[in-house]
Design goal:
Number of strands of chain B: 0
CATH superfamily of chain A: P-loop containing nucleotide triphosphate hydrolases
Strand content of chain A: 15-25%
Order of helices and strands of chain A: EEEHEEHHHEHEHE
CATH class of chain A: Alpha Beta
Distance between the termini of chain B: 38 Å
Largest sheet of chain B: none
Distance between the termini of chain A: 22 Å
CATH topology of the domain at 34-210 in chain B: ABC transporter involved in vitamin B12 uptake, BtuC
Oligomer: heterodimer
Amino acid sequence: MQPGAALELKDLVVGRGSTPVAGPLSFSLAPGESLVITGPNGCGKTTLARCLAGVAAPLAGALQRPVNGVAFIPQSGDTDALVPLSVDEVLRFAALSSAANTAQSAMAAHAERAAVLDAVGLPGAQHRRFAQLSGGERQRVQIARVLLSECPLMILDEATSAADAASEQMLAAAIAAHARQRGRMALVVAHHPAAWVAAGARLLTLNARGTP
Amino acid sequence: MIAAWLQAILDAQLLLWREFSPAWWAAIVAGATLPALGVQVAFRGQALTTLAIPQVSFAAMALALAIPGFALTDAHEPSMLVMLAAAFAGALLGGLLAGQRQDQHAPLRMGAVFVGAWALTETVRALSPVGEMRLEPLLHGELLGASPSTAGLVALLVLPCAVILALQRRLSFCAAFPDAALAAGLNTRRLERGLALMLGAAIALGTVTLGPLVTAALLLLPAALAARNAPSAISMLRRAMLTGVLAALLGSIASVLADIPLGAAIALACVPIGLCISALQRR
């Protein structure tokens, strides 16, 4: 399949090494849509998310991804505390994607970063140290990074797992609304999909064998 | 009387500066550039690799000097080009021995490479009197006799440093969130290989001109000290570079006044300067 505007999977099988863990899976996601994937531990949700993000290769099947990269939040283990980042520096990484808007002035970019932090419930946190935030706050910063990115596809792997129920509801609504308004796609892996479904996301439940 | 006394000190300093200026310039350039590379090493937790690679590079230089008719010219002077090539080959070999995999055995592997290269250096030095004579000053970091051509070679360190500074944000993204950087469309493998190449070139240049002690010290100490309570990655980079430059200046003065090797003086000066900068920034 050729890269285009939508995400499309046909009989996709993903695995760890050469061992299949999920699939075959077939579904598509159009601009403006959100999809939440849920299922028991070990059913291959994270492996699927990594494959759709382009971090791992599929074992079989066809995958069409939008061009210009993917705004991806991996599971929390990806964060490396050896790099002493400020919140603002994490947000600035959004401008490094291949879809970044390079014409924006520094002042406008700064204002946009502040506004997105506001939207995820972390007003004025730009100069705080990323490593010193709580798990939930770090997840909000990562969500802000993804929202700031211009990539057409956002993939969030358990990106609200440390949030309380009310915060998860607020974040799910903000992300789904952002996808609708900007014509972006949001693919979310979550153990508790209710907040996402309430925000208008489609639901895909995988069984223990990694099939729908 | 005080004015005359100050004038005498100033005159003495100017005289010293004129006498040792290539060495001091070399120290200042190294102090400004190597810590910038060391910061990226610190972001990747590869301190042991950075300790081992200069040692392998130095072992390769020792081997080159020990082979009859290879690195020594007819005038029994080492050919700088051959020495640089040997040092770079050693740095690449060290990088290959380190491997790209940062698994649980990586520190053990690097420790073994460091000790192995050290033992090889000592053996080759014992077998080659010419090498012994040429390598001894580098081992101690005795820079004060540096010629203008040595200072010129050190100035080449600006090139890998400029490349790393230009890619600083991309490299930090790769180090902090490798999967997210790859998904965003960054060629993380090419960036990491580019960093390794620049580091290898800087280590080779540093080992040939400054010696393994100064090279490893300026790569590791300023970055390690700057990492203490650094509020951001860019702040850590600035602190590390400032520490390196000030350590080069202070170490140069201390080396002349106390008659100690310049390299050791620079390495030791990093510690109080780094701690002071860290304390000042915290206040």
